[in-house]
């Protein structure tokens, strides 16, 4: 069992103080979202004398450009839709690449990995004009299609690495028993992929949920705005009403907090394990 | 890799097996088509647009060769956007990695509160950059907490309109960036530290090595692969900086915080200069690719030397 020395105790105290300082912005966010708009000012560090939900009510009702509730639903549908497509198409593609092997699979794998590095700003203009032609700007289908394509390299990369390290015994046994490929994949392989599926889902879900640039370009002014775009325009509308802005930010952040507390491990694994190569 | 009972040993040797359950190539088709269309084709088309004067109208695009790129070189806003991007990226990478490594070493083992503290430093990474930027916009505004604190400490002279000042605005963005992503570099280094066998550290401790000597001679060399990953990852993040700038300063005051990404957005979607915006995006892509690869090669070489 670890016992403290004077040195490790000092180190712990120091880090606790640093973490507390690091969290001051969160404290300011929480405190001021409950403060009456008129009293925000000064250092902003004091607790509000009369805590109120007014800012939340006002933020929730929105600024006439659609409510925050609607934006929340838009964000959920687009994130969930993209994640499902990324898991379904990513896992089967990675399964083929990992199990087939050979030069062709190698070329396809390289195609996906290189796709991770390419910044999306370059393709945004052509995508926007093509999507506009096909009526895919400003709606769910377009956004889900877009994110599925943009993040597919990442999904395939994570899945392939995991499947390569997975023993083949069960699949081979199923094959001997005469199971079809579809049945083998659904009944045997996919359940074994659960850890990496969780990582892919959480990581890509978070990326889509937090992404602002693409959503600003493709959904701005469409009436189907997502949370980041809605918060962005809320700031435009309530420039100096920080209480409302903070309430909107808190509403947008709560789902992230839930994911964070339940799936922090997967999140960290996605960042570190995925990049170990 | 372990293999079970397989009927044909000759095929086992090649690491494949042929059974009715062998994965069909067709399963890869949807993912491949999506990536070809939405990543590769779109990027190629973007590169093509950069050679035209297209403004998004139905009239179409006229080929103008490299004149968009010549215009970028002439354009003082584009040139300063490039400098700002590099400045933000470099300072962010250095400071965020230094902080992250210090946190990781401090929180690697032993401390009772280490898991809680790690989570506390990591949480900002999971947040939307936009949300983070708005909290900081309030903190940094003229009658916000920072100036309030300076006033309370009797340092009224040091008060600034942090985001409204051409000098300080860019540093404010860097600070926000560092605050959000130091927890990410911490996680990279923690992963690296955990792969160091505890015996190695104990041996160094028994030999009576000083903490710094131990860090320099034992920890740092074994951390080299994590350093490569973390530096590369944060560099790409820094060179793409967009959300924070849009939320904090929108590129102002007087272009003092324009970056390549904000210029791509403004030229394309605000000014309707699709061709010029695409050319800026090409510059940004090349910059990320060249600097990223150069850094990766240098670091890989360095890994072997320390």
Write up this protein.
The complex is a heterodimer of chains A (277) and B (306). In chain A, 76% of the residues lie in helices and 0% in strands. Chain A is an all-alpha fold and 277 residues long. Chain A has a domain of 160 residues: MetI-like fold (Orthogonal Bundle). In chain A, helix 4 crosses helix 10 and helix 7 packs antiparallel against helix 10. With 306 residues, chain B is mostly helical. Chain B has a single domain, classed as MetI-like (MetI-like fold, Orthogonal Bundle), CATH 1.10.3720. In chain B, helix 3 packs across helix 13. At the A-B interface, helix 1, helix 2, helix 4, helix 5 and helix 6 of A face helix 2, helix 4, helix 5, helix 6 and helix 7 of B.
The gist of it:
The complex is a heterodimer of chains A (277) and B (306). Helix content of chain A is 76%, strand content 0%.
Which key phrases capture this entry?
heterodimer; A: 277 residues; mainly alpha; MetI-like fold; 13 helices; 76% helix; globular; B: 306 residues; disordered N terminus
According to CATH, the homologous superfamily of the domain at 65-219 and 271-275 in chain A is: MetI-like
**Fraction in beta strands of chain A:** under 5%
The sequence of SSEs of chain A as H and E is HHHHHHHHHHHHH
> What is the CATH class of the domain at 65-219 and 271-275 in chain A?
Mainly Alpha
- Coarse structural class of chain B: mainly alpha
Silhouette of chain A: globular
Number of domains of chain B: 1
According to CATH, the fold-level topology of chain B is: MetI-like fold
Q: Write the H/E string of chain B, N to C.
A: HHHHHHHHHHHHH
CATH superfamily of chain B: MetI-like
Cα distance spanning the termini of chain A: 35 Å
Structural class of chain A: mainly alpha
Q: Helix proportion of residues of chain B, in percent?
A: 55-70%
The overall strand count of chain B is: 0
Shape of chain B: globular
**So how many helices of chain A?**
13
β-strand percent of chain B reads under 5%
């Amino acid at each position: 069992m670890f016992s403290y020395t004077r040195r490790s105790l000092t180190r712990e105290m120091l880090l606790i103080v640093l973490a507390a300082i690091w969290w001051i912005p969160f404290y300011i966010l929480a405190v001021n979202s409950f403060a009456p708009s008129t009293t925000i000012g000064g250092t902003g560090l004091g607790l509000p004398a009369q805590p109120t939900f007014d800012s939340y009510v006002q933020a929730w009702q929105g600024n006439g450009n659609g409510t925050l509730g609607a934006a929340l639903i838009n964000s959920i549908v687009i994130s969930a839709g993209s994640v499902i497509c990324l898991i379904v198409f990513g896992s089967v593609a990675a399964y083929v690449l990992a199990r087939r092997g050979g030069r062709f699979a190698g070329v396809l794998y390289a195609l996906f990995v290189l796709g991770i590095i390419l910044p999306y700003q370059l393709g945004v203009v052509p995508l926007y004009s093509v999507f506009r032609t096909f009526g895919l700007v400003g709606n769910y289908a377009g956004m889900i299609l877009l994110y599925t394509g943009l993040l597919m390299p990442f999904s395939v990369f994570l899945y392939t690495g995991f499947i390569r390290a997975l023993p083949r015994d069960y699949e081979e046994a199923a094959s001997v028993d005469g199971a079809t490929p579809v049945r083998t994949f659904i009944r045997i392989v996919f359940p074994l992929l659960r850890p990496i599926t969780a990582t892919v889902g959480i990581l890509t879900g978070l990326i889509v949920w937090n992404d602002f640039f693409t959503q600003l370009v493709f959904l701005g002014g469409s009436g189907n705005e997502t949370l980041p775009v809605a918060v962005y325009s809320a700031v435009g509308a309530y420039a100096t009403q920080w209480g409302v802005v903070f309430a909107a930010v808190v509403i947008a952040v709560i789902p992230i907090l839930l994911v964070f507390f339940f799936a922090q491990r997967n999140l960290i694994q996605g960042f570190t394990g995925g990049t170990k190569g | 890799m372990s293999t079970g009972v397989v009927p044909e040993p000759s095929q086992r040797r090649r690491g494949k097996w042929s059974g009715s359950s062998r994965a069909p190539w067709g399963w890869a088709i949807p993912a491949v088509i999506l990536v070809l269309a939405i990543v590769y084709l779109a990027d190629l088309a973007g590169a093509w647009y950069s050679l035209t004067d297209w403004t998004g109208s139905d009239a179409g695009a006229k080929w103008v060769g490299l004149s968009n790129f010549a215009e970028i070189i002439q354009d003082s806003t584009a040139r300063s956007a490039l400098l700002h991007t590099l400045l933000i990226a470099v300072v962010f990478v250095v400071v965020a990695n230094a902080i992250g490594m210090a946190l990781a070493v401090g929180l690697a083992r032993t401390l009772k509160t280490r898991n809680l503290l790690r989570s506390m430093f990591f949480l900002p990474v999971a947040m939307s950059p936009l949300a983070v930027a708005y909290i900081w916009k309030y903190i940094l505004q003229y009658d916000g907490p920072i100036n309030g604190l300076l006033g309370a400490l009797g340092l009224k002279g040091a008060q600034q309109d942090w985001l409204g000042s051409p000098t300080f605005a860019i540093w404010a963005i860097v600070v926000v960036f560092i605050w959000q992503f130091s927890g990410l570099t911490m996680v990279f280094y923690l992963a690296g530290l955990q792969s160091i066998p505890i015996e190695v550290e104990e041996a160094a401790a028994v030999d009576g090595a000083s903490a710094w000597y131990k860090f320099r001679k034992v920890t740092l060399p074994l951390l080299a692969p994590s350093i490569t990953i973390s530096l590369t990852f944060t560099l790409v993040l820094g060179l793409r900086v967009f959300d924070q700038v849009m939320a904090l300063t929108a590129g102002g005051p007087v272009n003092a915080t324009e970056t390549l990404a904000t210029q791509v957005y403004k030229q394309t979607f605000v000014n309707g200069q699709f061709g010029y915006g695409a050319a800026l995006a090409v510059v940004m892509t090349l910059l990320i690719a060249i600097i990223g690869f150069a850094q990766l090669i240098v670091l890989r070489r360095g890994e072997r030397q320390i």
